[in-house]
Amino acid sequence: MARFEELEPQEVDRRRRAGNALVLIDVREAGEWELCRIEGARLLPLSRMGDWEHLLDPNGGPYVLYCHHGVRSRFACDRLARAGLRGLMNLTGGIDAWARRVDPSVPMY
Question: Catalytic site residue 67?
């Protein structure tokens, strides 16, 4: 049984447009955040996960985590799922895929 979902950028966009209250969490570092971000996201860097992971509501969310290409956010989803969080989703392909498939106004790096 999967502990979190893998969502394509188009599906995240569709759910947002449908009015789903998704909590977007960007696990990249501050320097990457300054380059670009998905509107409405919250920066919670993976490197500081020990400082913030306990602050998330275990029954909250749904949480959509993303990074540059989806690898770091997948790691974060797995760690949070092991800690008991529910409603976790990884943005497949990260912000790079988001810029390519959903919002070309988001700068790529």
Answer: yes
Question: What is the number of domains present in the chain?
Answer: 1
* CA pair distance 101, 86, nearest whole angstrom: 27
- Tell me how far apart the alpha carbons of residues 102 and 97 are, in angstroms, rounded to a whole number: 8
The overall pTM is greater than 0.90: yes
Active-site entry in 25, 56, 64, 67: 67
Q: Find the CATH number of the domain harbouring 53.
A: 3.40.250.10
For the segment 82-100, what is each residue's pLDDT rounded down to a tens digit?
Answer: 998 999 999 999 999 999 9
Is 109 within the bounds of a domain? no
The answer as to whether 82 is a domain residue is: yes
Q: Which amino acid would we find at residue 31? A: G
